[in-house]
Design goal:
Protein name: Acetyltransferase
GO molecular function: acyltransferase activity, transferring groups other than amino-acyl groups
Number of helices: 4
Largest sheet: 7 strands, mixed
Organism: Thermobacillus composti (strain DSM 18247 / JCM 13945 / KWC4)
Helix content: 25-40%
Pfam families: Acetyltransf_1
Strand content: 35-45%
Structural class: alpha+beta
Distance between the termini: 35 Å
Low-confidence stretches: none
Keywords: Acyltransferase, Transferase
Length: 160
Amino acid sequence: MAAAYTIRPYRHRQDTAAILRLIRRELVPLSHTPIGREALTDRALTARIRQGRTLVADGQDGEVKGFVHFMVTSRPNVPALLQIDMLAVEPDSRGQGIGSALLREAELYGRSRRCTAASLFVDEGNDRAHLFYLRAGYRAIQYWPSLRCRELYKPLFPDI
């Protein structure tokens, strides 16, 4: 059976409104971190999306079904790290492998940039996301009480 979605790079004019809706509807309500109004403006969120890389899952109808935003961070004498910043899938599109496909593509990108591992944060209480990442091979390495988040980590080259 063919996938009912396609993963492609973010297109600013075409995708921004749908991604902003997903962020505000699916991610912001789960966050315990105080978020200033300035950080939630269209301008600030769009600027954040444009930093790093964003991939979008399109449905057969051409509608955005989900997205992942990630960055490669590197410092001198430290291996590069893939930082998964945001991943969200429309509620009516969950369970179709979209989130897993988006995460796989982000990890492939990280490997192509010689990232040795991937890291991300999951908000306390977001058990669905926590289980999703555990099934994808991530493990909790630290709890950040000030953020009320778990930090998860996955080696991208496990045999090295």
